[in-house]
Design goal:
By secondary structure, the chain is of the alpha/beta class. It contains nine helices and 13 strands. The chain has helices at residues 8-22, 66-80, 113-133, 161-171, 193-206, 232-240, 257-261, 269-319, 321-326; strands at 27-38, 44-52, 55-64, 89-99, 103-111, 151-156, 180-185, 213-218, 245-249, 264-266, 331-333, 351-356, 359-364. Strand 1 and strand 2 (44-52) form a beta hairpin. Helix 2 packs across helix 3, helix 4 (161-171) runs parallel beside helix 8 and helix 5 packs parallel to helix 6. The longest helix is centred in the last third of the chain and has 51 residues, at 269-319. It is rod-shaped, with a radius of gyration of 48 Å.
């Protein structure tokens, strides 16, 4: 049986003719960027791909010639807030090209940055709906943070400005409050960031060390740079973490899915440092207020006791016989030195001592006169 043999060039030529008949003009293509290589000469080479639940299902090489890349790259970044990079979903206009020597390639001459933003927002809304359906959105809110959180696990990039700002602000606070922090490094942006942060969360949970809180820190960035913080896998990791997770990612206008599922979130790493310092400052102010009230109560108690002592002293002084004698009274002692309380029983010749405030007189009774109906003296 005769074999139908074609050479490679003929095969490639047939493929080229078929491709060019199928795609005679330019088409808008949606795909994910799985690799980007900008060459020194100005051309940019991309690897475009598509995946489904089972994994990668399609892949193709694309190129943006230097003359177009010089225009498209800054335009895309100005609208999307991020440069063209790996992990992005893009809508690009391509001319399908097939070369007998180099095979299939896609020549990109336009890109729609608003589509990339729109797709990310749709994915974000789907993620929020899924987390709510699975009961994960409020799971962190059920955890309790210690009244004075001290041991803090920090997930960030060690060389990131946001992490350095946080550490300096927290540990060099004006009050001198002391905190314990331990860094668990991770990628904080890009295609691998969500998986890297999730792995760091697992590392914290498996460390065996008791942390009061887990902090995820990342300074500001472009919207697409921060898109990983809307990732379902990362959000579900945060929701299921057994210790309170606090996030500080992005700028004031950014609210990410990770912020929604976290125990709480603030806008910047420095703001999170202030959040912890304020807890301690509030407790310190409360203790100072309590100490002040205690000191005041103690002082009031001392003053009351002093007043009572002064009153007793006044009473004692007023009962002092010497003060009584100064008012003109006389203390009379009989011959045995006992107080003579009355005239009864006294007879002429008895010796008496008359004590005044300024001295004493020794006297002898010459006569005694008694009053009628006066009861006798009792000792």
């Amino acid at each position: 049986m005769e074999k139908d043999i074609v050479d490679l060039y003929e095969l490639q030529t047939r493929l080229k003719d078929g491709v060019e008949r199928t795609f005679p003009g330019k088409v808008w293509l949606k795909a994910e960027i799985s690799a980007v290589k900008a060459r020194p000469g100005g051309h940019c080479y991309l690897e475009l791909s598509q995946s489904d639940g089972g994994g990668l299902v399609a892949k193709a090489q694309a190129i943006v010639w230097a003359s177009k890349y010089r225009i498209l790259a800054p335009f895309f970044e100005s609208v999307a807030g991020s440069p063209i990079s790996e992990g992005m979903l893009v809508l690009v206009r391509v001319q399908v090209n097939f070369s007998q020597l180099y095979g299939l390639s896609l020549i990109i001459d336009d890109i729609d940055p608003s589509w990339s933003l729109g797709e990310k927002e749709k994915e974000r809304l789907r993620t929020i709906a899924r987390l709510k359906e699975e009961g994960l959105m409020d799971l962190q809110k059920e955890l309790a943070l210690p009244s004075l959180p001290y041991r803090l696990a920090v997930i960030s990039a060690g060389d990131a400005a946001g992490y350095r700002d946080f550490m300096r602000h927290l540990h060099e606070n004006d009050y001198g409050f002391v905190f314990s922090t331990e860094l668990f490094p991770a990628l904080m942006q890009g295609a691998g960031a969500a998986a890297s942060i999730s792995a760091a969360i697992d590392e914290v949970s498996a460390s065996g060390r008791e942390f009061d809180a887990l902090l995820i820190l990342r300074g500001g960035g472009a919207r697409l740079d921060l898109a990983c913080y809307d990732d379902y896998g990362l959000a579900s990791h945060i929701a299921r973490c057994p210790i309170p997770v606090l996030t500080a990612v992005g700028h004031d206008q950014d609210v990410h899915v990770c912020d929604m599922v976290a125990w709480t979130s603030v806008k910047t790493p420095t703001a999170l440092a202030d959040w912890f310092i304020d807890i301690y400052a509030g407790e310190d102010a409360m203790l100072q207020s309590f100490a002040s009230r205690l000191a005041m109560a103690f002082q009031n108690k001392i003053s009351a006791m002093e007043n009572r002592l002064q009153l007793l002293e006044t009473r004692i002084k007023s009962a002092d016989p010497r003060n009584i004698l100064r008012r003109g009274y006389v203390l009379v002692l009989d011959g045995n030195g006992r107080v003579a309380r009355g005239a009864a029983g006294r007879k002429p010749g008895d010796r008496l001592t008359m004590m005044y405030h300024d001295g004493s007189l020794c006297c002898i009774v010459e006569s005694a006169e008694m009053k009628d109906n006066v009861p006798p003296e009792t000792n």
